[in-house]
Design goal:
This protein has about 140 residues and is mainly alpha-helical. About 55% of the residues lie in helices and about 5% in strands. It has a two-stranded parallel ribbon with strand order 1-2. Helix 2 packs parallel to helix 4 and helix 4 runs parallel beside helix 6.
Length: about 140
């Protein structure tokens, strides 16, 4: 059974518009990548501006989007396969459809991240509309 992902309309756009802080981005990198080498690869491909951003500074919209999408892919893999370690292993696996590169190595383009998500994870997205609270 495919995992169901709920996404509030506008939540991702609001996040992208403000950009991840350096601290948020580093936490996300530590969640997705378990070793120093993997974290370096992830930062080099998905969020190169993170090297220059202080903890309270903000990543560019482009780097934020790539990092958030890779975090989403990690979350989907973990939900689909039931294990963080297996999700990380899949992110490192060379894939013929990605030019024999891993999803982490291809994280420099949104298209490659989306392609990896399509290849690895059967999922359903449920859009949740934020309704104003009634008095």
């Amino acid at each position: 059974m495919a995992p169901v992902v709920e996404e509030v309309i506008g939540a991702r756009l609001a996040l992208l518009a403000r950009g991840l802080t350096g601290a948020e981005a580093r936490d996300l990198v530590r969640t997705v990548a378990s070793s120093d080498a993997d974290r370096s690869l992830l930062v080099a491909t998905a969020a190169p501006s993170l090297r220059r951003v202080p903890r309270r500074g903000r990543l560019s919209a482009t780097d934020t989007e790539r990092l958030v999408r890779l975090g989403t892919l990690f979350t989907l893999l973990r939900a689909a396969y039931g294990s963080e370690s297996l999700a990380r292993e899949i992110l490192h696996m060379p894939v013929p459809a990605l030019g024999d590169r891993s999803a982490l190595a291809c994280a420099d383009t949104l298209t490659a991240i989306e392609r990896a998500q399509d290849l690895f994870v059967p999922y359903t997205i449920t859009i949740v509309v934020d309704a104003p609270a009634s008095p």
